[in-house]
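Hey, can you fold this one?
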Amino acid sequence: MSLFIQAAHAAPETAGAASLFGQILLPVAFFAIFYFLVIRPQSKRTKEHRAMVNSLTVGSEIIFAGGLMGRIKALEGDYAVVSLNNHTDVKIQRASVISVLPAGTIESV
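Sure. Predicted structure:
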């Protein structure tokens, strides 16, 4: 009978070590999954958007927030003056630019 009691006392010690390992491994695994599925792709998109905004030049054809498209007429710091047609100019934040269109796209639409 004493043989079984000693075996019972030995079992919780090994289970405690496995439990501690599980408690550490589970949060690390969740963080790794969160990093690769959320944080890394978002930072990559942010970096690409920042590069696109910094590469804007006068004459670039763009689509900006709200779905309007136009041609950049002037750049003023963090703002851009965009010509929507021959008579309408608007001032927008450069960060609101969604995409840069290939040259000649506005005439073809």
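The CA atoms of residues 41 and 47 lie 10 Å apart. Let me know if you want another pass with a different chain boundary.
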